[in-house]
Fold Protein-lysine N-methyltransferase SMYD4.
Amino acid sequence: MFLKRLSSSYSVEKDYDAPLFYREEGNRKFQEKEYTGAAVLYSKGVSHSRPNTEDIALCYANRSAALFHLGQYDACLKDIVRASMHGYPERLQPKMMVRKTECLVNLGRLQEARQTISDLESSLAAKPALVLSSHQTLQKSVQHLKMKIQEKKTLPESFPAALTGAFEDVALGEENRQISGASLSVSLCTDPLKGRHLVATEDILPGELLVKEDAFVSVLNPGEVPPPHHCLESKWDTRVTSGDLYCHRCLRHTLATVPCGSCSYAKYCSQECVQQAWDRYHSAECSLGGLLLTLGVFCHVALRTTLLARFEDVDRVVRTLCDKAGSKDTCLPESKNLVKTFDCTNQEESEENSKIGEPPIPGCNVNGKYESNYNAVFSLLPHTEKHSPEHKFICAISVSALCRQLKAQTSPKLKAVTPGLCADLTIWGVAMLRHMLQLQCNAQAVTAICHSGSNESTVTSSSQVRLATGVFPVVSLLNHSCSPNTSVSFTSTVATIRAAQRIAKGQEILHCYGPHESRMALMQGDDVLSCSNESCTNSVSRDRLVSRLRGLQQQVRMAQKLLRNCKPEQAIQQLLGCREAAESFLSAEHTVLGEIEDGLAQAYATLGDWLQSAAHVQKSLQAVEARHGPSSVEIGHELFKLAQVLFNGLAVPEALNAIRKAEKILLVHCGPGSAEVRELREMRSCLLGSPFVPAGPLV
C-alpha cells in the first residue's frame, strides 16, 4: 500500500487535457526558434493524445515543422504521413503539402516532389473558398518550388547516409565457436579465484575488435523522475529527459518519437519498435509504469529479463523450477543446482546432456558454447553472501510487491502474452530476485555522447551520459581492473569491446566497471586529508576543502549560464577569476580546472577567436591527459574538439595534426563507424583541398 501511494505520484496514464498545453508550449518554443525543445514538447502532446483525433494530428504536424527547420527531412515526411493518418484537418492540408514538397526537393526525390506539386495544384483549383491572401501565398510557394525543382539535379545519397549501414555492419570476421559475439582472439577460461574470464589466444593489437554483443535486456534510465504533481506549478512537466530523446526499445536517438497506445511514458523511434516492445514485454509492463519508476531501474531490468526468457522455452524452465521448489537449496539464489537446470537448449541437447554429463563451465550449452541467452544470464553470479541483509530485504520486498501487482492483472490478454507467468508467480519471483542481486555487479551502464547548445550557437558542448542499464552475458565475462586493457562503446543496444593497448597472448582481457586508477584521489583520509605522496606533509580539513570546492563549482556554473545566455565576455571574466581561485588549491589535472579551460575555449569560440579558443583547449587537453592518460577515449574526444576549433580557425597544419592524433585514438576506442571519425575524415578531405595546405609531412 505504501508503494502504491508512492507510485501514484508518477502517473504514466494518458491525460487528454494535456495535448493542448504541450502544443501551446511547443508553439512558444518554435517562435523563439528553439526547434529541438519545440519538437520534444509536441512529442509530449502526442504521447497524451487519443488516436485519430485533431489533437494528435496537430501535434504531429507541428512537430514536422520543427523537424523541417532542424534539417531532419526524412523524419519530417514521416510525421506528415502520421498527421494525415490521424485526420489532419482538410483546411490545413495545402500548407502541409508545401512542406512535404520542400522535404522531397531537399532529399533529391524530385519525381515525388513533382507529383506532390501536381496534387497540390489540383487541390487549390478545387477549393475556391480559400481566403484570397492565403491562396496567393500558396500559389507563390508552388511557383517557387517548381523553379527549385527545375534548377535542382537529383542529388546523390549523402556520405553519412550512404555509409551508415556499412559502418553498422562492422563484423568480427570469423566468430568464436566457444563464445558467441567474440573474435577468435579470445578464449573462455575458468579459475577457482578468478571464476570465468577471457584470455588472449594470440597477440592482440590496439583497436582490435574483441566482442560485439547485443544486450540480452536493456532498460532506458528514466533520468530525473518528475516530482509529484503537487510540487509542480503545472501538473504537466515540460522538462526534457532521456526518455523523451531515445527509443525505449532500441535506444536510438530520435526527436520523432512514436508513443505507446496505452500509456504516456513509453516512446519509440518507429511503429516497428512499438509493436516489438509490446509483443515481447511492454504489454505486461505498461500498467506498471508508476510502480516500476518507484522501485527503480534494477527491478525493472529483473522483470523484463524474466519476460524475455519466455522466448527461450520458459515453460520448461518454470516446470524445472516448480519441480525443484520443494528443495530449500534450489530456491536459494546461490544454488549451483538451480544454475545447472537453467540450460535453455532444445530437448535433443538435454537428452544428450544426460549422457555426457553437465557442461564444464556454467552458462555453456551441452556443446560447451557460451551464448548470449537466458541460460548465460541466469548463470551470472549474484554474490548473495556479499550483499547486506538490508539490501537483500529491500530487493525481496520490491520483487514481492511487483509479483503481487502482476497477479492482480489476470486478464486473458496478459496470460496470452506471458505464458507460465500467471501459473506460479512465486517461481518467477525467485528468478527476479536472483536477477536483482546479479545486477549489482553484472549490470552494464549503456552510455551515449549527449550534445547540447542552442541552434544559433557556434559552439556546442558534449558529455557522456548514462543512457540505460543493460545485461550483456558475454561482456560480463570480463573481470574488472582499475587499469583495463580494453575500451567499451555502444551503438544502440550493441556493446563493442576493443583492445585499448597491445595484449599479449595468454594475458587476461580486462574491463573497468568500477573505480579507475585515473580517478583515484590524491588526498586521502577521513576528517583530515593528507597527500598520498609520503614526502608531502600538507594536510587540510575535509569540510574546509569540500566547502571551497563547492563554492568554486557554483561560480563555474554561473559562468556556464552566462555562456548559455550569449554573454561570452562576462563568462570569460568570471572563468578567469575561477581559474585563479582553482589554481590556489587544486591539482593541475583536477576536473574543475579542465571545465574552466573548456568553458574559456567555448567563450572565445563564440566570439570567433579560434586561436585563443584553441589555446584553452590545449590546456584542457593537458588536464584530461594527466587524469585519463594519453591514449584514453577522453583524450580522443578532446583532440576531436581541438581539431574542430583549428579547422574553423583555418590553422591548416595544426588542424591536420590534431585530426591525425584524434583519429588514431578514436579508431581504437570507437571504430571507423563512429560519427566523430567520419567527421574527422571529412574535415581532412576539406583541408587537403585547400590552397593553404603546405607541402611536406606534418609534425
User: Anything to note?
Assistant: Residues 559-688 form a domain with the Serine Threonine Protein Phosphatase 5, Tetratricopeptide repeat fold (CATH 1.25.40.10). The first strand starts at residue 186 and ends at 191.
